[in-house]
Amino acid sequence: PTPPQTHGPARIVAMVNQKGGVGKTTTTINLGAALAEVGQRVLLVDFDPQGALSVGLGIDPRPLEATVYDLLMEEPDVTLEDVLLDTTVDGMQLLPSNIFLSGAEIRLVNEVAREYALQRVLEPLLPHYDICLIDCQPSLGLLTVNALTCAHSVIIPLECEFFALRGVALLMESITKVQERLNKSLEIDGLLATMYDPRTLHAREVLQTIMQGFGDKVFHTVINRTVRFPDATLAGEPITQFDPASMGATAYRELARELLARWPARV
Ligand code: ADP
Ligand code: MG
Predict the structure, then answer these.
(1) Domains defined along the chain, listed by start
(2) Minimal-distance CA residue to ligand 1 atom 24
(3) Does residue 11 line the site of ligand 1, with CB under 6 A?
(4) How many CB atoms lie within 10 A of CB 153?
(5) Are the CB atoms for 226 and 246 separated by under 8 Å?
(6) Distance between CA atoms of residues 139 and 233, nearest Å
């Protein structure tokens, strides 16, 4: 017999790379959807003032009156329920953000325990989910440090392009600093090669360089470059729904399996 399905406490995973356009948001949406497909309860956190995660899920964040910002700032009349939204994916919910979040960094600077603001927000939610994915903004500022401080692990998407590894050393340094000062148990789940075009020698060379540099820290799953991803974003759907049989959908399902196999089992 199989044991009864239990949920939580959620594993928190931060999607980080201070470079923009490397596939953080796309990976958050599609990995989340692939995990939900196999029965995981997923919470997505939009932690980028651009709000691209919300947009990619078909939600225009601009007019929202209650967002992650209010939770971070402990606005007394905004509750978690006010902010939390359902998505088109069963078992996957979203804490949305919009441009207001850009003010949070400045306001948090003078707070006590300013690195722990997001942890405070997420704490009461953790028993209700299996996995929480945080889509970080392209910066190593205080918001990203907040995500690293509350996360169990990080995923680092790398675009298979010429300057893929530029900045990765700095990112690794930031992760080490957070491990030393704020979150000893933070792990690196892996580096994810994205936007890979197997037809070009250039992309193959970049992938090889990534593998030489980081060995078994690189996921076996590689995400190919395909216009289906921007198409799905425009449609406001994960690719697993927009084009369920596509290579892109298959790749994110494979990544979900790879991660579930790597993570310590929960009983
Ligand atoms: P980030 O969040 O790191 O800034 P995004 O996930 O928003 O990056 O991706 C940047 C752009 O590239 C988006 O327009 C997205 O649709 C597109 N994109 C992401 N992954 C792929 C891919 N594998 N193939 C083609 N386009 C992609
Ligand atoms: Mg993004």
Answers:
(1) 11-261 (3.40.50.300)
(2) 225
(3) no
(4) 18
(5) yes
(6) 22
Q: What CA–CA distance (Å, rounded) separates 25 from 238?
A: 11
The best mutation among 22, 26, 199 to test binding of ligand 1, ranked by most ligand atoms within 8 Å of the C-beta, falls on: 26
Torsion of CA 188, 155, 144, 185, to 10 degrees: -30
- List Cβ neighbours of 15 (8 Å cut-off, separation of 6 or more): 24, 25, 27, 28, 133, 134, 135, 136, 154, 155, 157
Residue 26 CB–ligand 1 contact under 6 Å: yes
Q: Sheet of 153-159: strands edge to edge? A: 85-86, 92-95, 42-47, 131-136, 11-15, 153-159, 187-194
Host H or E run for residue 213: helix 201-214
Greatest pairwise CA separation for the chain in angstroms: 56
Atom of ligand 1 nearest to the CA of 196: 23
Q: What confidence tens digit (pLDDT) does each residue in 40-74 have? A: 999 999 999 999 999 999 999 999 999 999 999 99
Distance CA 227, CA 211 (A): 25
Instruction: Provide φ and ψ at 180, rounded to 5°.
Output: -75, -35
How does the average pLDDT of the chain come out, rounded? 95
Number of other residues whose CB lies within 10 A of the CB of residue 217: 13
Complex ipTM more than 0.90, yes or no: yes
